[in-house]
Amino acid sequence: MYQQITLIGNLGRDPEMRYTPGGTPVTNFSVATSRSWTGQDGQRQDRTVWFRVAAWERLAETCNQYLTKGQRVLVVGEMEEPTTWTDREGNTRASLEVRARTVRFLNTRAEGEALAAASGQSGGQSGGWGSGGGAGQDPGGEDDIPF
């Protein structure tokens, strides 16, 4: 069996990179996906869903180097098992986690530089692909099409 999720959204915070005890880099960041619609009552409705994303190996290093809060990204990966808990008010909550295989930076270079300047960082890249090691490295190959 195979499952894949594709997200397009904005980073909710700057990425955080750490290393496993074996020395493998992993970068974590959050992505907000939003949609808007008009309800039956004519009122505009908005819904935002947050995803926690983990990028590994070379992809982790690239994401940590170039991504900043607010940037628009496309993430392709696999859903991990959701984590559920009960908050202080007794509501059941879930954390949706994605292991990224591909991350594409969707901001233009000018937008990336403006975001980097606003966050106090230098540089900024956009429009590039990052891909991690392991299976499915090349997101654009015809061999990856499952049909």
Can you characterise this structure?
- By secondary structure, this protein is mostly beta strands.
- The chain has one domain (5-135): Beta Barrel (OB fold (Dihydrolipoamide Acetyltransferase, E2P)).
- 14% of the residues lie in helices and 45% in strands.
- It is built from 2 helices and 9 strands; from the N terminus they run E-E-E-E-H-E-E-E-E-H-E.
- A 5-stranded mixed beta barrel has the order 1-3-4-8-5. Strands 6-7 form a two-stranded antiparallel ribbon.
- The longest helix is centred in the middle third of the chain and has 10 residues, at 57-66.
- It is globular.
- The protein starts with a strand and ends in a 16-residue tail after the last strand.
- Mean pLDDT is 80; it is low at 122-147.
Per CATH, the class reads Mainly Beta
Tally of separate helices = 2
CATH superfamily: Nucleic acid-binding proteins
- In the CATH scheme, what's the topology name? OB fold (Dihydrolipoamide Acetyltransferase, E2P)
Record the strand order, biggest sheet: 1-3-4-8-5
Q: Mean of the pLDDT scores?
A: 80
Provide a quick synopsis of the model.
The chain is 14% helix and 45% strand.
Helices, strands, pairings?
Layout: E1 5-11, E2 16-19, E3 25-38, E4 44-56, H1 57-66, E5 72-79, E6 83-86, E7 92-95, E8 97-105, H2 109-118, E9 129-131
Parallel strand pairs: 4-8
Antiparallel strand pairs: 1-3, 1-5, 2-3, 3-4, 5-8, 6-7, 8-9
